[in-house]
Model the fold of this input.
Amino acid sequence: MLVLHMIPWLNAFISYYTETVMSTTQFSSELRGQYKAKAYAAASAKSPLAPTTIPRRDPGEHDVQIEILFCGICHSDLHQVRNEWSGIPTVYPCVPGHEIVGRVTKVGSAVTKFKPGDLAAVGCLVDSDGNCHECQAGLEQFCLHMTLTYNSPDVHLGGVTYGGYSDSIVVKEHFVLRVPSNLNLAGAAPLLCAGITTYSPMRHWGVTKGKKVGVVGLGGLGHMAVKFAHAFGAHVVVFTTSPNKKEDALRLGADDVVISRNTDQMSKHEGSFDFILDAVSAEHDINAYIRLLRRDGNITLVGAPDKPHAVSALSLLLKRHSLSGSLIGGIAETQEMLDFCGKHNITADVEVISIQKVNEAYERLSSADVKYRFSIDMASLKSQ
Ligand SMILES: [Zn+2]
Ligand SMILES: [Zn+2]
Done:
């Protein structure tokens, strides 16, 4: 969910919560029972993550309580912990984590899809208003009143929501996903953000067998995009600035690798792509990729460079090219993605760490030193 901070409507929904919902939370917090959960939190933008306890609500009738087994580390976690997003100022203490996989420990009386002992997952969202146009369309990620898994106002307990760097979480049933039992759980955790972020735009733009698909950037998002495009039966080309990533790209399912700084290699592919997923958050020339699209081809951004892209209108209009963005996916599509992963045995390539190593992992993530995602083994929090 690298792109969330760039979206102006988030400001609108934050003010909505601050002005209307937050004013009512004091009341509900007095009514709702709560328990203490172990977690790792940052006390300020400059503090390392450290052990603490946080309140979680006792599960209500529609809630599922989950013992967290693994939580992936998304680049968004690092940005939020360091308060680097002006659109979503961080409230401290901050417990990040929105790539959550665990086991159900308790369910409310009205819960029908889960029972204790089931595997379960939670992604970037834990609530929405359920009745707006977006929610009705199953696109809760675009709901103006959605609640992010962490650092969103918590209507139950007051304060803000706390994420997955914790031993448990309580989430409304609608936002809890089923996890196919054949998947490696450490590698399944990143599917909840990196997975759906790349799966959703490829489904939306019709990536199927026989299509030629480009993936720009081979990091946490890019490596998932390669796996999905390959599983959809597309011809997959990875664009990278690092020649040493070639072997890995091929292993992950790419059919071809292009060194993007090599103009000869780039021009060989001109006008040939049906779809390109751009997962790069660093500054780069997007026109170089738009030129590679065939008529009616689309390039979708899931990375968000700080500086706006300079887009040539000509490169778009000459072959009716389109440029879009995409943001995670709705709950139904996230479930579809997990089921697809179960069927094709797709998980993220992860480096499993203990929670005690999380600050070190953040440093390494800052310098892109991970293949391709860190996944925290939450058993390590038990001994804390
Ligand atoms: Zn994320
Ligand atoms: Zn809604």
Q: What stands out?
A: The longest strand covers residues 63-73.
